[in-house]
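Supplementary Methods. Inverse-folding protocol.

Structures were first reduced to a discrete structure-token string of length 707. This string, shown here, constituted the complete conditioning input.
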């Protein structure tokens, strides 16, 4: 695969408004500020950011949020296709906290062994924004990037002049005999209030793969709900509330991210996931106030039922075994953007105050009281300890605009405090170890952008960003075989509790990006082009899995570097549309014992989409093509727990789509995935190894009626 590309992807300027009198009449929830000076700094336009709009999600009839981002440069999927087995991989980063997920502003996070844990129904989404690379304004960690998901609201659905409406959608998929049903109601009963409720149900059998067999324990039984309300208090102030929930009941492989159930076996899995947010937006004071405040709460409850003989954890002695995970993330965030001018200089000053609390309750119980007392006292599982983590962050970024030059320095300070709970806390206190561990880190960034003196509006950009990643609850307090805190690693320095806790250091990373961006250009009337070509290099130090002893000291000498090229370009016109993207990521890892090629990055990926509109836009037809090269994977471990590197073969995929709007109220869509019935494997979310076989050819049919 060749490395040609010129990339594009775009960022459109935001429109803001001044404080105004109480709202008289509102035809759309959009506001503008009187006397506001320009606008979005060029450093933001040059960011490696891609937004997937509702039109694209509909066009390919995405069955998951991961399908929706296919073809986005630098983005792949770990695990799958099981409902609980998929997670985002950005620039090769796919572990929990490496990619930050936000749903309507609330952070989502779920950490469980061999589990994906991202539950978002695509039918309920209006847009998906993917930012590649760390960002001071996103959150602690997020070395790979950030995925911001926005759900639909009434303003997205109502047509001009409408007060009420409803939409029904029915769909099928041949690959697993899936049936999906969506009902949605939306209203603007008053000029200052928008309301929406929606529900989706998906049911399906096991996925058929290319050889005609099925992927064991991959059935779907999922329900999703959305309720949303917005109150436009004035032309410049609005208050919004949203509530989403997803639940799934199915027989799944314990290793949801892997291939066949294998040695781990299968469990009856129940997942209940919900997210609730309140958002306040206020704009005015001559451009000095553009404030977004978010309070959110995300909860995930998971129950795994192990029947004797169905998994390695249950047998005739234990009887039925039950794992309970209850995970809660609380978000409180205030962000303000102030814009003003001083002489020849324009200014944008962004400030952020952010607090995120993660709480993790874990309990394992068997039917045998004797086993519970010896292995799982009080429900405590040493491999999956409970605990809390509180992160307080403060950040500021100042963009200075001077003619064609924009300079954007930034700084962030974080304090991360991790606390053990339950038996893990007791064990640490018993052996004189601190059960509360805190890390404070200061990071910085610098963005430079030059608007080139060319006929096309090209931007030459550079970004340098520091980031840190504190250890997760799971990583800090785990005991036993799954912990890095073992005698083979630490020898005589192994803590008597078997918990390393305060011995870990946060990971640090430095990322540099160079980019050439075409924010948007009219090629001819009715035909627009945008694109971006970017090169990045990331250096990460103090790898957590490199915990070792060096002489009489405990060290984390491991490091990695990764670099890559990303290109994206989009063409959109009245008759034709399309996109082209390319990604290449490679690097090296040192685990304090040996050097290996980077094994958690996807293969080089070329993605092409082409489409055309006919009959005054009522018909659209097109294709999507992806070529993914072979990649390095972990196929096993040596006796010294060193990875054995193997190869996962590359593949080519072709998808087709067709849409027909029979009337303003009725729409039909057909999408054919994997037309050539290509046999290939998805990325494993655990250890970078060979994952699950992907679904074979699938025909999706949908009909939607709006009234």
């Amino acid at each position: 695969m060749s490395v040609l590309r010129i990339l594009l992807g775009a960022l459109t300027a935001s429109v803001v408004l001044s404080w105004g009198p109480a709202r008289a009449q509102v035809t759309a929830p959009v506001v503008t500020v009187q006397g506001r000076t320009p606008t979005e700094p060029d450093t933001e336009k040059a960011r490696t950011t891609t937004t997937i709009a509702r039109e694209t999600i509909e066009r390919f009839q995405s069955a998951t949020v991961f399908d929706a981002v296919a073809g986005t440069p630098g983005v792949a999927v770990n695990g799958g296709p099981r409902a609980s087995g998929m997670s985002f991989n950005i620039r090769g980063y796919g572990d929990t906290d490496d990619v930050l997920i936000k749903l309507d502003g609330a952070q989502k996070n779920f950490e469980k062994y061999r589990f994906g844990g991202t539950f978002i129904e695509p039918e309920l989404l209006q847009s998906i924004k993917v930012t590649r690379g760390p960002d001071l304004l996103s959150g602690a960690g997020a070395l790979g990037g950030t995925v911001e998901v926005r759900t639909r609201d009434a303003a997205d659905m109502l047509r001009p002049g409408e007060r009420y409406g409803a939409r029904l959608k029915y769909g099928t998929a041949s690959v697993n005999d899936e049936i999906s049903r969506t009902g949605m109601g939306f209203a603007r009963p008053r000029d200052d209030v928008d309301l929406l409720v929606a529900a989706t149900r998906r049911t399906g059998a096991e996925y058929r793969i290319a050889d005609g067999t099925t992927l064991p324990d991959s059935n779907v039984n999922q329900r999703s709900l959305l309720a949303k309300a917005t109150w436009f208090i004035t032309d410049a102030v609005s208050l919004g509330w949203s509530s989403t929930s997803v639940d799934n009941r199915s027989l799944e492989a314990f290793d949801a991210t892997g291939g066949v159930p294998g040695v781990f076996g299968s469990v009856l899995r129940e997942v209940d996931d919900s997210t609730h947010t309140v958002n306040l937006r206020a704009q005015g004071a001559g451009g000095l106030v553009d404030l977004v405040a978010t309070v959110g709460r995300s909860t995930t409850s998971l129950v795994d039922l192990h029947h004797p003989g169905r998994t390695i954890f249950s047998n005739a002695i234990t009887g039925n075994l039950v794992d309970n995970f209850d995970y809660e993330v609380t978000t409180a965030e205030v962000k303000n953007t102030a814009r003003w001018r001083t002489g020849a200089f324009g200014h944008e000053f962004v400030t952020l105050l952010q607090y995120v609390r993660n709480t993790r309750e874990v309990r394992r119980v068997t039917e045998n009281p004797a086993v519970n007392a010896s292995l799982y006292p009080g429900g405590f599982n040493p491999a999956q300890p409970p605990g809390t983590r509180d992160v307080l962050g403060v950040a500021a970024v100042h963009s200075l605009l001077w003619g064609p030059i924009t300079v954007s320095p930034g700084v962030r300070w974080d304090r991360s405090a991790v606390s053990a709970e339950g038996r893990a806390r007791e064990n640490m206190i018993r052996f004189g170890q601190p059960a509360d561990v805190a890390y404070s880190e200061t990071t910085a960034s610098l963005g430079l952008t030059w608007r080139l003196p060319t006929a096309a509006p090209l931007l030459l950009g550079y970004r340098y960003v520091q980031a840190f990643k504190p250890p997760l609850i799971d990583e800090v307090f785990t005991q036993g075989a799954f912990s890095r805190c073992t005698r083979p690693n630490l020898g005589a320095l192994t803590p008597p509790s078997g918990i390393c806790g305060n011995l870990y250091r946060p990971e640090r990373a430095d990322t540099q990006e160079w980019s050439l961006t075409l924010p948007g250009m009219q090629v001819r009337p009715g035909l627009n082009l945008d694109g971006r070509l970017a090169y990045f290099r990331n250096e990460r130090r103090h790898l957590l899995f490199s915990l070792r002893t060096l002489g009489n000291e405990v060290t984390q000498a491991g490091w990695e570097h990764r670099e890559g090229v990303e290109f994206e370009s989009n063409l959109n016109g009245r008759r034709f549309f399309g996109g082209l993207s390319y990604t290449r990521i490679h690097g090296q890892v040192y685990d304090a014992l040996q050097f290996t090629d980077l094994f958690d990055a996807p293969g080089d990926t070329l993605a092409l989409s082409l489409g055309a509109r006919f009959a005054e836009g009522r018909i659209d037809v097109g294709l999507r093509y992806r070529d993914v090269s072979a990649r390095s994977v972990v196929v096993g471990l040596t006796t010294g727990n060193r990875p054995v590197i193997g190869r996962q073969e590359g593949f080519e995929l072709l998808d087709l789509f067709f849409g027909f709007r029979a009337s303003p109220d009725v729409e039909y869509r057909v999408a054919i995935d994997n037309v050539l019935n290509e046999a290939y494997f998805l990325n494993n979310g655990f250890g970078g190894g060979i994952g699950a076989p992907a679904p074979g050819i699938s025909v999706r049919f949908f009909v939607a009626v709006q009234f």
